[in-house]
TrEMBL record:
Upper taxonomic lineage: Eukaryota, Metazoa, Ecdysozoa, Arthropoda, Chelicerata
Protein name per Swiss-Prot or TrEMBL: Membrane cofactor protein, putative
Record's keyword terms, sorted: Disulfide bond, Glycoprotein, Hydrolase, Repeat, Signal, Sushi
InterPro entries: Sushi/SCR/CCP_sf (IPR035976), Sushi_SCR_CCP_dom (IPR000436)
Broadest EC class assigned to this enzyme: hydrolase
Domain Sushi: 16-73, 82-141, 142-201
Entry's EC annotation: 3.4.21.84
Gene3D superfamilies linked: Complement Module, domain 1 (2.10.70.10)
Keyword flag Repressor: no
Pfam families: Sushi
UniProt xrefs under PROSITE patterns: SUSHI
PANTHER family: COMPLEMENT C2, SUSHI DOMAIN-CONTAINING PROTEIN
Length: 207
């Protein structure tokens, strides 16, 4: 009696895959396929540059041909020094401070002046893609701000800012008496010569 043995040999296709590409901020890959022979191309969004190879290939040993790249934000513009008036010296000369501003396209800067100064020009400027600011650097001019609206009185003239040496007058409404100086002068340091006065109601006198 003879005995026969049958051996089945299975042939299967081994899928070779390279490791997953590390997740990197802003990095764009042409495909998520990572099988043997695939070539993956990389790109970065606007204002970012590719740091590394533009593509990698999956080799037969299940490794990439190179280390995948990353995206680094591209500095297109370093703003010029901005001159800001900080205060007045004893000699009446402006003391200026230079501030170095670094900005990327699309970033914005906002300018403000210290107390006793008003802004002349645009307060907001945007860094353009061509490496220039959308608005010129403004200046800070010595001036007085609106002192406030006294109750039961009128302030003449009434406006947002007053030039150095300009005078504002306070007049009480009928039936009220002024407590304080009716004449306010804008001093050279950008402050008013006296506090805002008050108006007090007159007491009725019965005979």
């Amino acid at each position: 009696m003879s005995t026969s043995h049958r051996t089945d040999v299975l042939c299967s296709l081994a899928v070779i895959q390279c490791p997953e590409i590390p997740n990197s901020n802003h990095l764009r890959a042409s495909t998520v396929n990572r099988t043997y022979g695939i070539r993956v191309h990389f790109s970065c969004p606007l204002n970012y540059r590719l740091m590394g190879p533009p593509f990698v290939t999956c080799w037969k040993n299940a490794s990439w041909s190179d280390t995948p790249p990353s995206c680094e934000r591209e500095l297109l513009f370093s703003a010029e020094h901005v001159t800001v008036i900080k205060e007045k010296s004893r000699m009446g000369q402006s003391i200026r401070t230079e501030v170095s501003v670094t900005a990327y396209p699309g970033d914005s800067v906002q300018y403000t002046c210290n107390a006793g100064y008003v802004l002349i020009g645009d307060s907001v400027s945007v860094c353009e893609a061509n490496g220039t600011w959308s608005k010129a650097v403004p200046k800070c001019k010595p001036a007085c701000e609106f002192p406030g609206q006294p109750a039961h009185a009128r302030l003449l003239p009434s406006k947002f800012h007053y030039d150095i040496g300009e005078v504002a007058l306070v007049a009480c409404s009928p039936g009220y008496r002024l407590l304080g100086s009716a004449r306010l002068r804008c001093s050279r340091d950008g402050h008013w010569s006296s506090p805002l006065p008050h108006c007090r109601r007159l007491l009725a006198v019965h005979k």
